[in-house]
Amino acid sequence: MKLDPATLEVLRNRLVTIAYEMGTVLKRTGYSPNIREREDCSCVLADPAGQIIAQAEHIPGHLGMLAVAMPALLQRLPPEVWEPGDVVIFNDPYVGGSHLPDIRLVVPIIVDGRLLGFAANLAHHADVGGMAPGSMPSTATEIFQEGVFIPFVRLYRRGVQNEDLLRLFLQNVRTPEEREGDLRAQLAAAQLGERRIREVVDKLGVDAWFAYGAEILNSSERLMRAKIARLLPAGRYEAAMRIDDDGVDPTPITIKAAVTVEGDAIQVDFTGSDPQRRSAVNCIWGFTVSATYFVVKAVVDPAIPANSGCYRPITVNAPEGSVVRVRPPGACAAGNETWQRIAEVLIAAFAKADPRLVKAPSHGCMNNVVFGGMDPRSGRLYTYYETIGGGDGGRAGLDGMDGVHVLGTNTMNTPVEVIESSFPLRVEAYELIPDSGGAGAFRGGLGIKRVYRVLDHQTTLVINSDWIRWKPEGLLGGERGGLTRFVLDEGTDHERVPPFCKFIVQLDAGSTLSVYTGGGNGYRPPRDRDPEAILQDLRNDKISPEAARAHYGLAEASLGA
Amino acid sequence: MKSLRVAVDIGGTFTDVVLLEAARGEFRALKVPTTAGDPSIGALEGIKAILRDGGYEGGEISYFCHGTTVGTNAVLEGKLAKAALITTRGFRDVLEIGRQRRPDQYNFFAVKLPPPIPRRLRYTVTERVGSDGRILTPLVEEELGSVVKALKREGVKGVAICFLFSFLNATHEQRVRDLLRDALPGVEIYLSSEVLPENREYERSFTVAVSAALAPVLTDYLARLEKRLKEAGGAGEPSLMKSSGGIMPFSTVTRRPIETILSGPAAGALATAFMGRVIGRPNLIGLDMGGTSCDVSLIVGGEPLITTEGRIGNFPLRHPLIDLRTIGAGGGSIAWLDLAGALHVGPQSAGAEPGPVCYGRGGELPTVTDANLIAGRIGVGSLFAGGVTLQVEKATAALREQIAVPLDMDLSRAALGVLEIVNANMVGAIRALTVERGHDPREFALMAFGGCGPLHATFLAEELGIPEIIVPVAAGVFSALGLLAADVRLDLSQAHLALLDQVEPEMVEEGFRRLEARARDELGDYSGEGQILLRSVDLRYQGQSYEITLPLPKEAGPGEMAGAFHDRHRQLYWWSDPRRAVELVTLRLSVVVPLPRPPLSRAAEARGGNPVRALRARREVSFGDGGLVATPVYDRSLLIWGDVLEGPAVVESTDATILLVPGEQAVVDPFRNLCITRRLGR
Prior knowledge:
By secondary structure, chain A is of the alpha+beta class.
């Protein structure tokens, strides 16, 4: 079939629009704060081989994750067994996932008995059971502690819901009503995708659907290859970074990566990374792959529409049983923090290829904070989960952004007024931290200070973070930003700083948690900073006069100006 | 003495001026270049010119309305006045942190727009209200002494106050205003509990901060413009278009400056609604396609669709505004190949300078206009080109070398392909407002205007099954007509959180009564006779965070409200669950004070029929892949009521080109609109 370039472009845009329309339904009608306030969800359209042809990922952490899972799903349920009205549900992270709270739903698109592809989505549920509220227990030692573990199973068969399966699931989670609502939203989104693809194929015809679908992937692959060849110098670039601890064992963890650029292809090898731990710090294979795709896309072409074709020039290798490719039944709930580390390591490797393409290391964390307990006002169980941004790294020509989510996450914060109306918590401070940005010609962004108080009840606090002791250097002579810090009951006579960056602790009524997220690192030496920019920071109290002297050598006289 | 209604719509490149002689409904329009430094200069030039052309005097202007991008530009370019923010201790940076999102998740070099008030001008005081509205920490008034000193030293032009939970209890915000007022004479003070009494501290902080920082900019500009209007002889109080499609008198702009930020694009939607009412089409899709972008709006039951989820740059706009989809699709949109050889169109545009290749002003990249020329849809000597001969050879060479040859397509297919892509992008924007919101486009007519809208409309209608296209009179400047058709409008809201099955009707009634009292107070002289009060509520399933706004009939009880909510939820999102608890979130009141609507001049009787008098030429036009069709070209200015044109046909005027594909029929109505249908239905 001779393909028409205009039809190809029209179809490509249409499919991306459909994926985003699915995403709108999901986030507007979901119940979990992760879905509705934070957009921690993704929607895809796949071909019958499970290759993703369009994706609306609302956070980068999901990039390519379903691309890894779909072929595994098709091995378990081959194309010929799918029937119209089937809905498959799973959260098994080992087949290309992240952690148990990310539940996926897959709906086949079947026209006249012919399988045309799949509409699928993934959403982070606020709780799927397990040893701690929020199902992100940072100190779990095997997956069975982390929550309900769902393999590929059919939630609907030929349009009929499997009530027993649903009841079993809901019985095992802390907030079943919310879960049911989230699944309704996911189902509506997947079915919408299926309906829209039927409309498209009605007009286009089945043969053209397959021909153009394949070409969408091929042209993305060609574009990716052309950009790699044009942008990146051939060579092998290595980097390594550490994670401070795993929440159980205080020894730091090393992650190593070697990026090899050869012509129009990129190989990423994590050999040399530490063996997997008896802790939730481990990263699942699909998640490691997704972090790799994220960095390559950001470096090579941030605007390229994500699909399986884009990933073809990229090969990823990691030793089985390592912290970046955990073997069952290793725990993985806190792997999202490891995702951030993998991304930061890869950025450092690409910096060696060309520092102008990347930025200095950011605060590097997601800073997962979970409170869970019984709300004394309503007598019902609650789970509050949030990640807190910090400073981004300085880059060529620009300071790092202050107080933003970085790398794999780009969720929105939960407003203070929403937290206090929905949960028995009070927020007592929410501000930028002066002097936390790493000094540099282009300084790192500032971290965030946030203080929570527990009101009238006992609660479980789960923290999953990193870089409380160590962080990498800035780029090209830029300095380090501030470290992450968690303090319990700060300013009282029982103030304490937990020794781990990942911990679970019971808190009494009236206790406080102070979170200080890290600052970004600087880009190029501080002495090259424009004096006007330093004065501007001084006027805005983003740096103190002492820091201006210590890091930028600014004289007393100019401080007075 | 004639009574003239004049409107000026100032855009980035052009200033549109329209004039309506009220008695006769005589309508005039012209375009002058925008004077970027001080747009009021260009506005005055335009007004003088249009008065001169019609032989009118400035003193005959009885009503003046203005649409402007001054607010938009000030916010996007950060050219705001020096203002301060006073907020709860511990929360100095809510305004700067925003929602913690970076504007582009993959681009390492993305830039976040700076907040409207910088950190050094953000002050905190000790106070705290809790989530139930009770005071947890009383305001420490003594702390304000040093704040006042700092504000005086800085010489701020405006002050914004935003405390946590002030939408539940405004005592502290009001007290701070009282304490500041005497100390800072002449400085406007804004309370978040007045400008946006709703949940979510960042959105409320931004609204109040931008109000304080934008008001002085707008006031200065409007004072200059008013002075120039007086120079031209105009009397009476001029009005400004708001993003909601209502108008406000210049003198009240300081109350709600943020509501002017999307003043410009609102006019097109309003014009669409206005013409729809005149000709009896209550359901319309407005398509305003110009040189660089295309605005799509939706009119349902005679009213433009309103949203409270607007955006400007990376900032939120939470007051009611006309819901528009703007995409980078215009005559100047550039066709290009990526490194892998895939064809794309836009969003980059050649703009007015250098413009499309065929204009011969230095443009070298093939555009949508060049493709239209190659397809014969625009003529070489088109009236649209304003006497310039379009350079078809240059356009052909550009498209051939840059697109057709590398893609191994023949030239005409390449031109059609470019047009198909830009059309599909516009179809996507229409879908977003219709299909994706539970509206069926087949129940709407398409109002196509702007320089390029009428040229592309037929293909969009075909794709979406829209049965009728209306090309309004003066299509090129039609949107400015909306400024003359606007009513005074005030939108107020108040957070009111309660489960629907536990709601106390008296409390809701009391809430609306308070909003009505505020409306009377704000509207002053405009309040009273003939005003229309519209109540609506924001509802959601308990536990969700996006609300649906539904009109609230006075007699509706909680049961009816819940029923309407389930229905709308299903229509919008494909599912509903009547067993789930529904939550009331916000009360909304809109007050509309209808202004006398100018009659449009209509022909006395239908004298037309055969349009042969308007026939200018014939040329070969490509409508699709069926090759070239010999097509008559008509001069729109010579068409009259009753004329019937059969497609294929091209209708040209100085401001737009209209395309009729084979099988379509256009009828000229009494207002000289072209109403296009497909003979056998679409």
